[in-house]
Design a protein that fits this description.
Blueprint: E1 2-6, E2 10-16, E3 31-37, H1 39-49, E4 53-61, H2 65-73, E5 77-84, E6 89-95, E7 101-106, H3 115-123, E8 130-133, H4 140-149, E9 153-156, E10 175-178, H5 180-187, H6 192-202, E11 207-211, E12 217-220, E13 225-228, H7 241-256, H8 259-273
Parallel strand pairs: 1-4, 1-8, 2-6, 4-5, 8-9, 9-10, 10-11
Antiparallel strand pairs: 2-3, 6-7, 11-12, 12-13
Length: about 290
């Protein structure tokens, strides 16, 4: 079963710093590296490495041709990843010795996706195939509606969370994947039990995955609840942990429809990811799990 990922593609500029730069401060970096990144890009890589059949839709600038080739090398179908006159999206990432990160994001070509791009990409898939979408591209609401009209299964990761998310047709989403910040943005709650109650009340037909960082993750819907602990590791860089989790969770979930097993795969993959620097480069292979 294929999955269409309408997602961002970024060039990540990563600076290792002693602490996050403060207002008015000029801070020298301990190192500088350039990585392939973007939530959409990372999630497509994670899906492919987890064994899923992935199509990536979106836009990159002329400076992003190497990112398109990188996706192809990973086995991702990039037929619907188009070149744009706008520069490729990029992120400026600070990483501290404890592995925490702080990110400034420039949308670039990720904000130049057209409605025709979305219609064309969705037409390539069939009823009950999956659409994965995040919140780093434009036309998110239209993508959700278009996929619903084609009777596709819609997975939404509202990252980064913004006020605009509440105006999307969220009642059409089949599966939400949320971290604690995104869940609070949707529900106003911080306690997992309260988040579950609110999400089920607001979106009774949807399933929800709530990621809890070092505490693991929870899956719930109107009829079931599953929880998985995260393996204990020494974190180096948490940049792509959530994207890695999503890719490995979805790959298993689409194949087996077994939430508990999918949670386990997602948590194990994310734990390996944070022991390595970088974004896409830190995502493990299925064989490593």
């Amino acid at each position: 079963m294929p999955i269409l990922n309408l997602g961002s593609v970024n060039i990540d500029h990563v600076y290792e710093v002693e602490h996050f730069v403060r207002p008015g401060e000029t801070l020298g970096s301990l190192s500088y590296q350039v990585f392939a990144g973007g939530k959409g890009f990372n999630q497509s890589i994670a899906l492919a490495r987890a064994g899923a059949n992935v199509l990536h839709a979106g836009r990159v600038g002329r400076d992003g041709e190497w990112l398109n080739k990188r996706l192809q090398t990973e086995g991702v179908d990039t037929t619907h990843l188009h070149e744009d006159e706008t520069p490729t999206g990029h992120a400026m990432i600070q990483v501290t010795p404890s592995g925490e990160n702080s990110i400034v994001l420039f949308g670039g070509a990720n904000q130049s996706i057209t409605e025709d791009d979305i219609r064309s990409a969705c037409t390539a898939l069939s009823e009950d195939d999956y659409l994965l979408i995040q919140n780093e591209t434009n036309h998110v609401a239209q993508a959700i509606q278009t996929a619903h009209d084609r009777k596709m299964r819609i997975v939404f990761n509202p990252a980064p969370m913004s006020a605009a998310v509440r105006d999307y047709p969220l009642n059409l989403v089949d599966l939400f994947v949320l971290n604690e910040t995104e869940a609070e943005g949707l529900t106003g709650e911080t306690d997992p039990d309260a988040i579950r109650e609110k999400m089920l009340a607001q979106y009774p037909k949807a399933a929800v995955v709530l990621t809890l960082g070092s505490k693991g993750a929870i899956y719930f819907d109107a009829e079931s609840l599953h929880q998985e602990s995260a393996p204990a590791v020494d974190a180096v860089d948490t940049t792509a942990a959530g994207d890695t989790f999503i890719g490995f969770f979805l790959a298993e979930f689409m194949q087996s429809n077994h939430p508990a097993k999918a949670l386990q795969q997602g948590c194990r993959a994310a734990a390996l990811c944070v022991t390595r620097p970088g974004a896409a480069d830190s995502i493990p292979l299925l064989s490593e799990l």
